[in-house]
Design goal:
two-stranded antiparallel sheet, about 170 residues, alpha+beta, 4 strands, 7 helices
Length: about 170
């Protein structure tokens, strides 16, 4: 059975999942953003089959999240460095950490989100573009953007109406 592609989807979640929706890709990006660079480092950290690691690294390079850079000429060896697009994926990973801690860590957090300089615990927030005000994620929703098709606008409007109807 051929896997369905989401490459032509309008939804940004679907488009993102097309690039990193496979769990090995997310774990490779986690390790790359924590400083791992070389094939052997990823292999050791993830205990992943070499052929799967090669496929996932190639896919992340093709999708522009990692850049392949030679670090040895004889023999030719590469390291994988996050691009600006890859660095932006850190926000997704931090949101997954917060969500996982909230719902799947009854014994306590094994990983915490902290401020780099102070080590003080943080929680993901959104920033109001207009005034810089911090907004908790549970206060956020989505709406159609300027480039939304009529179908996307209709879909989001009907979901919003259903949500309002369910609110007590």
């Amino acid at each position: 059975m051929q896997r369905k592609t989401l490459i032509h989807a309008e939804c940004p979640i679907a488009l993102s999942l097309e690039r990193v929706g496979e769990w090995w890709s997310i774990l490779i990006m986690r390790d790359a953003l924590q400083g791992l660079r070389r094939f052997e480092e990823f292999s050791r950290s993830l205990e992943i089959a070499p052929n799967m690691l090669t496929r996932r690294l190639n896919s992340l390079v093709e999708d522009g999240l990692l850049e392949r850079q030679a670090y040895s000429q004889r023999p030719l060896r590469y390291q994988y460095v996050p691009t600006a697009k890859g660095e932006d994926f850190a926000g997704v990973l931090l949101a997954l950490v917060a969500w996982g801690n909230r719902h799947y860590a009854p014994e306590g957090e094994s990983v915490q989100i902290v401020e780099r300089g102070s080590g003080r615990p943080l929680q993901p927030m959104m920033v109001d573009r207009a005034d810089g005000r911090l907004v908790p994620l549970d206060q956020c929703t989505v709406q159609a953007g300027p480039a939304a098709s009529a179908g996307m606008r209709q879909r989001l409007e009907s979901l919003a109406l259903e949500s309002l109807a369910e609110t007590p």
